[in-house]
Structure formats: C-alpha cells, structure tokens
Amino acid sequence: MLSQEAMGSRDKGVNQWQRGDTANYSHLACCSPRDGSTSYVTSLASSVLNYKYENGRRYHAYREGTYLMPNDDDEQERMDMGHHIYRLMLGGELGLAPIPKNPPRVLDLGTGTGIWAMDFADEHPASEVLGTDLSPIQPKWTPPNCVFEVDVFESEWAHRRPFDYIHARELGGCISDAPKLFSRAYDALNPGGWFEINATRPGRFLSDDGTDKLAKDAQFWMTNICEGAGKFGKPLDSAHEWAEQLRQAGFVDVKEEIRKVPCGPWPKDPTLKEIGKVQLYQETQLISSYTPAIFSRVLGWEEAEIQVLMAKTKMDLKNPALHLYLPVYFVWGRKPE
Q1: Domain containing 296 — which CATH number?
Q2: 112, 129, 155, 262: which one has the fewest Cβ atoms less than 10 Å from its Cβ?
Q3: How many angstroms separate the Cα of 157 from the Cα of each of 147, 161, 162, 188?
C-alpha cells in the first residue's frame, strides 16, 4: 500500500478527509464558492446514494448503468494511484496546457475522488474549482475554493457562467460521443480558455524489445476489454482521434503529446521505474475493477471464466521478463479570443 504522503499533495490543507466521509447531496445547478455556498454542495436525492452491488463490487446509482467501473473503496484507491502516476509523469504538474497562473473558473470533468480538483484548488487559491462526477464519493473536507457536483458530462450542460480551464482525465470508456463533448466544452469556455483531456490509450500492451508478443493472456484480455467497451458504446481506444476532433470543434493551438507509462519496474531510469512500480499495482487493480461488468454484462462471460482470465492477465503483467508499456495521450486546445 502507498502511504498517504506518497499519493500526492494531501498535506496541503486537505489532510482531514476520510474515505466515504461525504456530505449529503441533492440535484444541483452549477454552484460557485464565491456565491456564499459551503465547500460542498449538499442535499442530494437519496436515489443517488442507493448504490448497486454486483460481482462483489459497488457501482453508481445515478444514471445507473451508464458507467461500468465500480465506485467502492478499492476503486477510489486506484483512482488516487492514477493521480500519483500522472504527477510523476508531469514532474509534479497537474497538466500541460499553458494556462494562466490562476484561471478564474476551472471545471474538472469526471472528477472521481476529487483529488485533481483539490490539488488544483490548493495550488491556485484564486481559482474557483468545480468537480463533477456520477458518484458522490468526494470528501467533505475540501479547500474553500473547491466544490463538487453530481452531474453527467454527456448530458446538456447547464452551468450559468463560463470557465477558463476545463480538464478531463482518464475518460476512456466513459465517452459515447467525443465530438459532442468537445463542442460542449468549447461552448462552456470563455474566449481564450483552455480545454485539456488526457488518457491512457489501450488497444495493445506495447514493448520496444518484442516482449509484448509473449504477453498472450494480457493481449487477449486487452482485445476483449476494448471490444466490450466498443459494444457498450463507449470506446476505450480513441485518444488518438481527440486532437483532430478538438480542431473540428473550433479549438486552436491544439497540441498532442504522447508519453509512455511502463507496466512494471523494468525501466532503468529511476523516475520511470517508480512510475512502473505504481502503474503495475494500478493496472492490476484496474483489471479487477473494469473486467467483471464488461465481460459479464456486455460479452456474456461466466464468472469463473472471468476470474481465470483476470488471474492469467495479472501474471503476464507481473512477469519481469516482459517490458510492457502503454501510451498516454495529452491533448489540449484553446478557444479563440
């Protein structure tokens, strides 16, 4: 297990939260911390908290079935590990878009545990930060300039005021219509505002020495997980299309940067070795999180078959002779003045 300190910047004024210590919610309109609201939007309808249980995992209740990842404690820990990996990859930064020091209004789509939004709020105290997600799993104790809402980013956006920076991370498998999402982000930005979306692109585990060909079970799992996500209508393997789709939505100064995230501590570079160590644990957790719903609901596999494939896939990833990695896409663009 990673220590809380190793997971990121919890020591920057947001160190009192406890997992599951969430406030009450209700359906909300966009709320700004400068409007006199508390640090957490409250009074959510009880149906949003009526979580569903399947395959030993807990799933969201709001818009049930639109998202196939669980939201339980194990998955929340995995999300926070993913945030730690990104900070290592970015040298401690929270993104690559050339935003101003304190963009007035910031939106984090699919905020998950809220860790990115809280870190951004800590590091940009003059910014108002809003995080949205299907699940009310974010902590009650947050920076004073950070709020959370239960919302679906694929529905119509009803924010009363535009944003200056919109951030999205690891939304593969969550987006059914990327061009429409990017158009909504464009419309929700102030002129000159930035949109940034980052995600690992699966499809196949890669290597530079041919060892990816030896990971037969892992590659079989990857092929099927991508097939299932595609059949579900929310593809995993689409990050390579985002830059052009941003341009088509009207964004300018669009940039794309691709970095490698190793699956295991095989790199010689100390930073990449640390990233690979955490990514290996995160990836095995992801297999446990993502596989059951897609393989059972979409692909029709039996539970015993699923368990066997997950175990074989994890064995491949833990094999030190296999030097596997995945590409991570960083894509950003600006709404013209």
Answers
A1: 3.40.50.150
A2: 155
A3: 17, 11, 11, 8
Per-residue pLDDT of 219-272, as tens digits, reads: 999 999 999 999 989 999 999 999 999 999 999 999 999 999 999 999 999 999
In a domain, 68, yes or no: yes
- Which tens digit of pLDDT belongs to each residue from 59-93? 765 565 566 777 778 888 989 999 999 999 999 99
Write the single-letter amino acid at 274.
E
- Number of domains the chain contains: 1
Which tokens go with 204?
């196949």
Alpha-carbon distance of 61 to 202, in angstroms, equals: 27
Q: Could you identify the residue written with the tokens 């290996």?
A: 280
Find tokens 């870190």 and name the residue. 119
Q: Does any domain span residue 23?
A: no
